[in-house]
Specification:
- The complex is a heterodimer of chains A (114) and B (178).
- With 114 residues, chain A is of the alpha/beta class.
- Chain A is built from four helices and six strands.
- Chain A has a six-stranded mixed beta sheet with strand order 1-2-3-4-5-6.
- The relative contact order of chain A is 0.17.
- The longest helix of chain B is centred in the middle third of the chain and has 19 residues, at 57-75.
- The termini of chain B are far apart.
- Chain B contains six helices and six strands; from the N terminus they run ββαααββαααββ.
- Helix content of chain B is 43%, strand content 26%.
- Chain B has a domain at 5-102 and 151-176: Histidine kinase-like ATPase, C-terminal domain (Heat Shock Protein 90), CATH 3.30.565.
- Classes of the chains: A alpha/beta (114), B alpha+beta (178).
- The interface between A and B is medium-sized, with 27 and 27 residues.
Chain lengths: 114, 178
Amino acid sequence: MEIKKDKYSVEYIRKNRQITFKGILRLLGKDEYREIFELLTQAANETTGLPLKLDMSALQFLNSSGISSLSMFIIKMRQLDKDITMIGNNNIPWQEKSLRNFQKLYGKVEIIFS
Amino acid sequence: MEKCILIGDEIEFEKDIETTFTFSFLPLDIFDNWERVGSLSDFVAEYFKSYFINSAAYNVISTVFNEFIENAVKFTKNNSQPIIVTVKKRNNYLLSRITNTIPVKRKDAFIGICNELFSKDLDTLFLKRVEEGVEDRKKSGIGLILIKKDYQVKTNFNFFTDRNKINNVAVTFNLNLQ
């Protein structure tokens, strides 16, 4: 399942329990992120036992509305008591600087830098 | 003229500037196509990146300007009134001032947000805002927190009334690219 636009794509591969973000995500506000949030929620509901993987390593930019929406998803995972692994890229400054914020929201977020 | 209200860090904006440029744009053009915020931010980053040795300069400049420009557009009073952006370079720093109109009814709320930024622990404030956002999707306001917390950007906010009695805010910031 994939959301594909000019500037970004978000792909969910169920058998790998993985969602891959690519490109530039700078949408107007949280409402604009609703479609992505719904895809994430679906993946969360379908994933049991092993962690859900969010591969952010090819996401060049994510604005604060995107970080806010992703934070809401992390809180949802916390409510469901499910594990998350985030794959980041420490050559991309926003990831190196801001990904750790998600761990502060939920201790079961594991961050791996590729 | 009404007395101005200045909140935030002390920033020397005028002296010892090596280069500068200024541009303005209309908020209505941004609302017509939100991707234009990114285009403006990328342009500033592309224009200034070669002054800095830091290989992350392009991405950091674009990220920081994107947040401040988004904020200016979202808080503006009049979509037909230009938002003015001045960028200056000094040593390993970029300094910028973004000036926009603000509606009277949102001025006090904005001042409250600014006061919180300089009086509370930013990690705690980030967590609080995110948790509030779960309850009310319209609430967010983490952009300025992230820029201060994760990018150590010095910032101040000057609220003033112009000669036409319109409320404005000039947001000045200092980005270290060493």
